[in-house]
Design goal:
With 800 residues, the protein is of the alpha/beta class. It folds into five domains: 92 residues, no CATH class; 207 residues, P-loop containing nucleotide triphosphate hydrolases (Rossmann fold, 3-Layer(aba) Sandwich), CATH 3.40.50.300; 244 residues, Rossmann fold; 88 residues; 55 residues. The protein contains 29 helices and 17 strands. Helix 18 links the parallel strand 16 and strand 17. The protein is elongated and about 155 Å long. The termini are far apart. One of its GO terms (cellular component) is chromosome. Keywords: DNA-binding, Hydrolase, Isomerase. It is an enzyme of class 5 (isomerase). Pfam families: Helicase_C.
C-alpha cells in the first residue's frame, strides 16, 4: 500500500505547504505557533494513542470538534490513505521512502546519512530517519540531529546507559528529549539549578512543543495542583512550574490509579526524589515510587553530571553541599534495569569520571564524547591591584565614552552576593545620567524575588534586552544559554577547574565572532607555594610534570572548615591557571581528559595569554584596566597572606562592651523588638569577628556587611551604624595614644599579661612614691613658711 497515492500534490513538500499556518502540534492542543500539523484525516478519529495509519473510504457521521482543525482529502476514483499527524505519516513509510524523503527535505551537510546507512539494523536506520525528519519539521527546518545525538538515541533504544561528554552549546538537551517526538513515555531530567530548569523548559517547549514540567522545592505539593490544570489549553505555571498540557488535564492521573497524565518531560532537582528536612515526601517523590508511573519512564538523564562529585560527596572535612546528588544510586536501584540512565557533562576530570561511573552508570555503558574545547573563546587572567572587591577594577567593562549601541554584553561572576550588588551599583553610577537606573547594569542572585530574576534574565539573554552588563552569582553559571555575551569575567578564583570552564563557556553561545573569558584574581594566588600542594616547585612546571590522574582540584590544606581562608581553599588547577606557565587551552584539555585533535584549535585572534605573542588584554576590553597611581596604598592583598595582627585584649574588651551597649540601645528602640531577637541585629560571634580586626581597617558599612557575610537588606539597616560605632572608637583610641597592637614574639599572651601586670604594679608604686616625696616636700615648705612667719612676729614684738 503506497500512501503517496492519496495525495493530490506531487510531493510531500507541496502537500504540507498547502496546510498554511492553521495547523498545530499533535502533542499540544490549541498552540497555533507549533510547527507540526495536528490532524491529516478525512474522518474524526478517537483519542486513543494508536500509532497505526488510519484510513477510511466512507463519509463520517460524527459531529466535528469545533476546537480542532481537519483536512478532508477525497477522490472519487481512488481510496484515500490518510494519517492523523506527520509522525504517523512517516511511520507508514518504508526505509527507501524515508531515505528519499530525508534527502529531499534536509540539506546533505546537516543530514548524517553516512552514519545512518552504516547501521547494522534496518530498524535503527528507519528510527534515525524518523528522528531526523520529525526534528527537522518540529524546529521549522532549522535543526537536524547530529551524529552523536543519533548514536545516543540508538543506545537508549537498546536500553544502554550512556555517558555523554560534549562542550557547552553542543546540544545535550536535544539528545535528551528529541526521541520523545517519536515515542511515547516519559523522560526525567535531573537538573541542578532553578534558573537552568526554567531555561531548559522554555527551550524544549519552544523548539519541540513537548509538554514540559518543572519540579523543584517551590512546587506546590497539593494533589489538586498535580491533578488538574483548570483548562484544556496549554498553560504556564510561573515562576516555579510549567505544565503545557495536551488533551489530558493533569500532570499525573490520580483517577486512573497512576495514569501517565500529560507530561512528556519532567525537569527535576535531585532533592525531589527524597524526603525534605521535615521528613515529608514531595508529590513527585511519591509518584515515582508508584509502579504505573515508573512503567512510563523511558530515560533518566543527569544533566551537569559533574555535580554528583562536586556537590554530592564530602570533600576535605566539609559536608556534602547537596546530599541528594550522592544518593542518586538509590534512585537507580529503585527504577531497575529496564530504565537506562544517561550522564551528561562538558567538564569531567578523572576523579569526577570515577564518581559518575560508580553512582549512576552500569559497567557496560556507552561512552560518547566530542571535544569540550570552545575554539571561539580566548582565555586570560589578570592580577587586580588591591583586593578583588575594589570596585574600580571593574570599570574596564564599560565603554568610554559610553555608547549603548556599541557597549559589549558582559557577564561578571562573583560568588559573594553583597560584592555582586556593590559592583553592579558602582558600574551603574558611572553611566551618563540619562542611562542610570534603567536596567543597563543589573545584578542577579538567589535572594531576589522570582519576578525580578525572570525579568533580569530575559533582559540580558534577549538580543533586544536593555541589560548590557550582568553581575551574577552561581545561578547563571551552568548550562544556561546567553546568546550574545562577548566577555565573561570570573571575579576571584572559582572552586575548581570545572567551574572555570563552565562559566567561561557562557560566552558567544549563539553569535559569530570571538569571545573572551578572563579570570580576575588577587596577588596572593601568584605567591602561594606550590610545594604545599605536593608539587616539586624547584623544577620548571610543565604539563608533563603534572599528574592529572590525581585530584587536580585539591586545595592547599587537606582539611577545611567553613571559616577557612581563600588561600587554603584555592584549587591547584585554578592557581596553575593564573601562573601562565603553559597554554590554557592545552591545560583544559589535560584536566578534562580531552585528547581529540580539535581540543587545541582556536578561531580567535589569540589562543590565550600564555604564549608571549603580543596578547594585550586591554585591546579586547571596552576600556582600560584600572591602574592606581600609587600601589603603596592599594597593595593590601599581602595582608591576607600573613598572620593577622590583633588588637590588644584590653582594646578588644572595650570595643566589645561598646558594641554590646549599642546593640541593647538599638534593640530597645526597635519597633519589631517583640518579634525580632537581639541577636538578629548583631550576634555575639559577629562582635568577636569585628573586634578582632585591625584599627581603621573597617572603612564603610559595606566592609561590615562583606566581613560578616550578611544580606544586602541587613546591611541597609545596620551596617552603617555599626561602622560609625567602630570608627568613633578607633578615633578615641588613637587620641589617647594607647597601645593598639601586640606584636608577634616568643612570649605567648599569658606571659605578656604577667609582664604588663608587673609593669602596672611598678608604675603605681613609682607614682605613689613620687606623690609621697612631693607631699613631704610640700609639708617641709609649709613648716618653713610657718616658722618664718612666727619668727617675724616675734622679732616685731621684741622691737616694740
Amino acid at each position: 500500500m503506497n500512501p503517496f497515492r492519496s495525495y493530490q500534490s506531487n510531493s510531500y513538500t507541496s502537500f504540507f505547504a498547502s496546510l498554511g499556518t492553521s495547523y498545530s502540534n499533535p502533542y499540544i492542543s490549541q498552540c497555533p505557533a507549533s510547527p507540526l500539523p495536528s490532524t491529516l484525516t478525512s474522518a474524526i478519529f478517537s483519542s486513543s494513542n494508536s500509532e497505526d495509519c488510519s484510513t477510511t473510504t466512507s463519509a463520517h457521521t460524527q459531529l466535528p470538534d469545533p476546537n480542532a482543525s481537519y483536512l478532508v482529502l477525497n477522490t472519487e476514483k481512488k481510496p484515500v490513505y490518510t494519517c492523523r499527524s506527520y509522525l504517523q505519516y512517516i511511520k507508514t513509510l518504508t526505509l527507501a521512502q524515508l531515505h528519499t524523503l530525508a534527502r529531499e527535505e534536509i540539506p546533505m551537510n546537516l543530514l548524517p546519512w553516512a552514519f545512518i546507512e552504516d547501521l547494522n539494523s534496518e530498524f535503527k536506520k528507519m528510527y534515525c530517519y524518523q528522528l531526523c525528519l520529525v526534528c527537522w519539521n518540529a524546529t521549522n527546518k532549522t535543526q537536524c540531529p547530529k551524529l552523536l545525538q543519533l548514536e545516543f538515541a540508538c543506545a537508549i533504544l537498546m536500553r544502554r546507559d550512556i555517558f555523554l561528554e560534549a562542550g557547552t552549546g553542543f546540544g545535550k538537551t536535544l539528545a535528551s528529549v528529541f526521541r520523545n517526538c517519536c515515542n511515547d513515555g516519559i523522560t526525567i531530567i535531573i537538573s541542578p539549578l532553578k534558573r537552568l530548569q526554567l531555561s531548559q523548559a522554555e527551550s524544549i517547549f519552544r523548539k519541540y512543543g513537548l509538554c514540559t514540567i518543572v519540579v523543584n522545592e517551590d512546587t506546590d505539593d497539593s494533589n489538586e495542583f498535580w491533578r488538574a490544570s483548570n483548562s484544556r489549553a496549554g498553560r504556564f505555571f510561573e515562576p516555579i512550574f510549567q505544565c503545557l498540557t495536551c488533551h489530558q488535564m493533569n500532570v499525573y492521573d490520580f483517577s486512573k490509579k497512576g495514569g501517565p497524565g500529560c507530561g512528556d518531560i519532567f525537569i527535576v532537582t535531585p532533592e525531589q526524589f527524597f524526603r525534605n528536612p521535615q521528613g515529608h515526601d514531595s508529590s513527585f517523590g511519591k509518584i515515582v515510587r508508584k509502579h504505573p508511573f515508573r512503567r512510563q519512564i523511558r530515560l533518566t538523564v543527569v544533566d551537569e553530571a559533574q555535580f554528583i562529585h562536586t556537590y554530592g560527596l564530602p570533600h576535605y572535612g566539609m559536608k556534602a553541599f547537596r546530599d541528594a546528588y550522592g544518593q542518586l544510586n538509590d534512585i537507580k536501584v529503585l527504577f531497575g534495569l529496564a530504565i537506562p540512565w544517561a550522564a551528561m557533562t562538558a567538564t569531567a576530570t578523572y576523579h569526577i569520571l570515577k564518581t559518575i561511573e560508580k553512582r549512576v552508570l552500569r559497567p557496560s555503558y556507552l561512552h560518547l564524547r566530542t571535544t569540550s574545547n570552545r575554539p571561539n573563546i580566548m582565555y586570560a587572567s589578570h592580577c587586580v591591584p588591591g583586593q578583588i572587591d575594589q570596585l574600580e577594577n571593574y570599570k574596564c567593562f564599560l565603554s568610554s565614552p559610553f555608547d549603548f549601541k556599541t557597549q559589549k554584553r558582559v557577564l561578571i561572576f562573583r560568588d559573594n552576593m553583597n560584592p555582586a550588588v556593590a559592583i553592579a551599583d558602582y558600574l551603574d553610577s558611572l553611566l551618563p545620567p540619562e542611562y542610570r537606573d534603567r536596567g543597563i547594569v543589573q545584578h542577579y542572585h538567589s535572594m531576589m524575588s522570582k519576578g525580578y530574576q525572570s525579568d533580569t534574565h530575559r533582559e540580558f539573554t534577549e538580543s533586544s534586552g536593555n541589560c548590557k552588563i550582568m553581575v551574577a552569582t552561581a545561578g547563571e553559571s551552568t548550562g544556561i544559554d546567553h546568546p550574545d555575551v562577548e566577555i565573561v569575567c570570573l571575579a576571584g578564583l572559582p572552586s575548581d577547574i570545572t567551574d572555570l570552564n563552565q562559566r567561561g563557556g557562557r560566552a558567544v553561545r549563539l553569535i559569530s565572532g570571538h569571545g573572551l573569558c578572563v579570570l580576575f584574581h588577587e596577588k596572593w594566588a601568584l605567591d602561594l607555594d606550590l610545594a604545599e600542594y605536593g608539587m616539586d616547585s624547584t623544577n620548571k612546571i610543565t604539563l608533563d610534570s603534572i599528574d592529572f590522574h590525581s585530584n587536580i582540584d585539591r586545595p592547599r590544606k587537606s582539611s577545611l572548615t567553613p571559616n577557612s581562608c581563600p588561600q587554603d581553599r584555592a584549587s591547584l588547577a585554578c592557581v596553575l591557571f593564573t601562573r601562565r606557565k603553559f597554554c590554557a587551552r592545552a591545560f583544559f584539555a589535560k584536566c578534562l581528559r580531552d585528547d581529540s585533535p580539535e581540543a587545541l584549535e582556536y578561531s580567535t585572534p589569540f589562543c590565550c595569554d600564555a604564549h608571549e605573542n603580543g596578547f594585550d588584554l586591554e585591546s579586547f576590553l571596552p576600556s582600560k584596566l584600572y591602574t592606581p597611581l600609587s600601589t603603596m596604598d592599594t597593595d593590601t592583598d599581602t595582608i591576607k597572606t600573613q598572620k593577622t595582627k590583633r588588637c590588644s585584649t584590653a582594646t578588644q574588651d572595650a570595643l566589645t562592651k561598646r558594641l554590646e551597649s549599642w546593640r541593647i540601645n538599638m534593640h530597645n528602640g526597635d519597633m519589631y523588638a517583640a518579634v525580632r531577637p537581639i541577636y538578629y541585629i548583631l550576634p555575639d560571634s559577629h562582635i568577636k569577628l569585628l573586634v578582632a580586626q585591625l584599627p581603621h581597617s573597617i572603612r564603610s558599612g559595606y566592609n561590615v556587611t562583606y566581613l560578616l557575610e550578611q544580606t544586602y537588606e541587613w546591611g541597609k539597616l545596620w551596617a552603617d551604624k555599626i561602622y560609625r560605632v567602630i570608627a568613633r572608637f578607633d578615633q578615641e583610641e588613637e587620641r589617647s595614644r594607647s597601645a593598639e597592637f601586640i606584636d608577634e614574639s616568643d612570649c605567648d599572651e599569658e606571659k605578656w599579661t604577667e609582664v604588663l601586670e608587673r609593669d602596672r604594679i611598678t608604675r603605681e608604686r613609682t607614682e605613689e612614691a613620687a606623690l609621697n616625696a612631693i607631699g613631704e616636700e610640700v609639708e617641709t615648705k609649709k613648716r618653713g613658711r610657718k616658722n618664718r612667719v612666727h619668727n617675724f612676729l616675734v622679732d616685731l614684738t621684741n622691737t616694740k
